From TrEMBL:
This is DUF985 domain-containing protein. Signal peptide: none annotated. PANTHER family: DUF985 DOMAIN-CONTAINING PROTEIN, RMLC-LIKE JELLY ROLL FOLD PROTEIN. Gene3D superfamilies: Jelly Rolls (2.60.120.10). CDD domains: cupin_YML079wp. Pfam families: Cupin_5 (PF06172). Residues 5-116 form the DUF985 domain. InterPro entries: Cupin_DUF985 (IPR009327), RmlC-like_jellyroll (IPR014710), RmlC_Cupin_sf (IPR011051), YML079W-like (IPR039935).
Amino acid sequence: MNKDELIAKLDLQPLEGEGGLYSAIYRDELSNAIYFMVVSPDFSAWHRLPQAELWLHLSGDPLLLHTIENGQLVSNQLDQEGKTLSYQVPANTWMAAESLGSYSLLSCFLAPAFSTMELIGKDELISQFPNIANLPELFHE
């Protein structure tokens, strides 16, 4: 299935603020899951959630998932060819993602269920982490 067929089949819609496309898989009071697609040149902008989030690569090109953990930039490549299909982002951790090709399709899982997301601007993130020289510029400003 190509990118456009996946977008139609999964009824993916733009995700305001963060970027990317998404649709709900399920949601209850305890947890939720979504399909999430990053289509280049778009990306998932720097944001954080109060819950831990599991990212699972499903298809398409590799995805580069960036997090800031313990004051350091961590970049994980999620794909079908390598050894890393998934990554769990700790709660309250800044994260951003970009496809390394034309598109990347993932599922994202949260427990407890999604409640809120905090976006951050470039100047504020840089002021919080001045020691990170190679911070990916993934901002929708």
